[in-house]
Write a structure and sequence with these properties.
By secondary structure, the protein is of the alpha+beta class. Helices cover 50% and strands 9% of the residues. The termini are far apart. It binds zinc ion (ZN) (2 copies).
Length: 204
């Protein structure tokens, strides 16, 4: 008999009790969504919609911060932590396999969730994994708000993203409390009535 590494209750011959295993599964499912929201909270707005249109063809306005750097210091850490757990679980379970290549956070979370039953029963560091995923979730929620407000799709982005006239086309979503609309793909901002009318007018 072993005790659950998270709550200290009797866990049969497992490292995590069923309750903590279920909780971890839920957190692994939610983490990519939180991450996506976190990126939106941290990445600076690229520029106004009007600017994008008027400067197309020329070198467009750039955000003062490099997004990739920002991602790395803020949200990238989440991906690294989760991926290192995937690497370790796979190393313990299939020592003969070569380590998995870096992937997306969503893919790593999905993989861990699929192996969760094995992890809870056979992986001695299961509670450490659960604790770390919990901490990541807490940190992310501290930035995004808890619960994360729901988003509604209002239309598709009409910003031109290159000098060939390619239209972004990503879904534009809005959540209660936001004063303007922002494309999550190209970070174009639709602020004010004129932008919103244009957005409406050019919907495919
Ligand atoms: Zn437990
Ligand atoms: Zn866009």
């Amino acid at each position: 008999m072993t005790l659950c590494g998270m709550c200290g209750q009797e866990a049969g011959d497992r490292f995590l009790c069923p309750r903590e295993t279920t909780r971890l599964a839920k957190q692994l499912a939610e983490l990519p969504v939180l991450y996506d929201e976190l990126v939106q909270c941290l990445v600076p707005r690229r520029s106004g919609f009007g600017e994008i249109v008027s400067t197309r063809g020329a070198a467009g306005p750039r955000s003062p911060l490099d997004e990739s750097v920002l991602d790395e210091i803020s949200t990238g850490a989440i991906g690294l932590v989760v991926h290192s757990w995937r690497v370790d679980v796979q190393r313990v379970r299939w020592p003969q396999h070569s380590p998995p290549p870096p992937g997306t956070l969503a893919a790593d979370c999905r993989w861990l969730a699929m192996e969760l039953d094995w992890i809870a029963a056979n992986y001695p560091a299961a509670a450490d994994l659960a604790r770390e995923v919990s901490a990541l979730e807490r940190q992310a929620r501290a930035v995004t708000g808890d619960p994360v407000p729901q988003r509604k799709t209002v239309g598709q982005c009409i910003a031109v993203t290159d000098d060939q006239g390619t239209v972004c086309g990503a879904d534009i979503t809005h959540r209660a409390g936001e004063s303007d609309l922002r494309c999550r793909a190209c970070h174009c901002v639709y602020a004010g009535q004129a932008d919103l009318l244009l957005l409406l007018h050019y919907q495919p």
